[in-house]
Design goal:
CATH architecture of the largest domain: 3-Layer(aba) Sandwich
Order of helices and strands: HHEHHEHEHEEEHEHEHEHEHHHHH
Strand order of the largest sheet: 2-1-3-10-4
Number of helices: 15
Strand content: 15-25%
Radius of gyration: 22 Å
CATH class of the largest domain: Alpha Beta
Structural class: alpha/beta
CATH topology of the largest domain: D-Maltodextrin-Binding Protein, domain 2
Length: 322
């Protein structure tokens, strides 16, 4: 009789918490390292997952190693981390170099825009032809997206514009001083510039490329080595589960209190107006799509980059873990 009761209890526990959670409860969470950004949206979602106990719910204890996208990709390549935040264009370069990487779940859309002074005469991106524009370095995803947009408008980002390469702070300074007519900028900086009343968005990358390809361009996803994906499917499911749950929380707005408490830390947003606008934009920027039409859209964007010589030729279909 006691054995029967024990079996029944085991079945009830499994049914109520799920097999993964039951194993985690019995064995303890699996500790893994994930390379992610210290600030911005990649850092924010990592902190949210930790604060809300989402990793533990999926049987994980995540050690977030804070670094930039380039360092994060190298950390994965060198085996320092099990997973890494990375741009799809970075994953393409890793594939070409012999690091067989796979993307398992999305994080954020590009969040980039061409920003101009509010009183400038420009009404379309084509109006900037021949002008000086502030852009990121050629090896960055932000530059890559700007080149794709230019090509789709039958323009050449390198031949039809005078690109002035710079980093984030320097780009903003160039626009403020009037040394360029527009800058390629991303969130939350765009929101802060617009709220100042001095600047406006000329072209939103995500809106533009969604109209062309059917989905905005993915700026960041979580990547793993192919070997890990094949040998540890339960781990892939657990990491994906934690991130998907966090994205759902953000998209629903249920992270409002957490965002407001950490807005300065992750986004350098201070005033109530900045925080309110940043919360809205953050909700829009997180990606909640992971299906065949989405993969096709991203592949078309990547193939355009390949055709422009910005990315090496690889089988982009192999990138995505469905």
């Amino acid at each position: 009789m006691k054995i029967t009761h024990l079996v029944l209890l085991t079945v009830l526990v499994l049914a109520s918490v799920g097999t993964t959670d039951f194993v985690a409860a019995a064995q303890g969470p699996q500790t893994i390292a994930i390379a992610t950004a210290a600030s911005g949206q990649s850092g924010y979602i990592a902190a949210l997952i930790e604060a809300k106990g989402m990793a533990a719910k999926h049987g994980l204890k995540i050690q977030n190693l804070m670094m930039d996208f380039t360092e994060a990709a190298n950390a994965l390549r060198l085996g320092r981390t099990v997973a890494s935040s990375m741009q799809p264009s970075t994953a393409v370069n890793l594939l070409k170099s012999g690091t067989d990487v796979r993307l398992i779940t999305p994080q954020i859309w590009s969040g980039n825009s061409w920003v101009v002074r509010k009183d400038s005469p420009y009404r379309s991106f084509a109006d900037l032809k021949g002008k000086k524009i502030g852009n990121f370095a050629r090896v960055t995803g932000a530059y890559f997206f700007s080149a794709v947009i230019a090509k789709e408008k039958k323009l050449d980002i390198e031949k039809d514009f005078q690109n002035v390469p710079a980093e984030t702070g320097a780009l903003i300074a160039l626009l403020e001083r009037g040394e360029v007519e527009a800058i390629n900028m991303f969130e939350p900086h765009t929101t802060k510039l617009v709220l100042s009343g001095k600047y406006r968005v000329l072209l939103d990358f995500d809106i533009e490329l969604e109209q062309i390809f059917g989905a905005p361009p993915l700026k960041s996803a979580v990547g793993m080595l192919k070997e890990t994906v094949e040998k540890q499917p339960a781990l892939v499911k657990a990491v994906r589960g934690a991130y998907v749950e966090a994205v759902k929380l953000i998209k629903s707005g249920e992270d409002k209190d957490f965002f407001e408490a950490r807005a300065k830390e992750f986004f350098n947003l201070s005033t109530p107006e900045e925080v309110s606008a940043g919360l809205k934009q953050n909700r829009q920027n997180f990606a909640a799509r992971w299906d065949d039409p989405f993969f096709q859209s991203q592949n078309q964007i990547l193939q355009t980059g390949i055709s422009l010589g910005l990315l090496p030729e690889v089988n982009v279909n192999a990138l995505w873990v469905k």
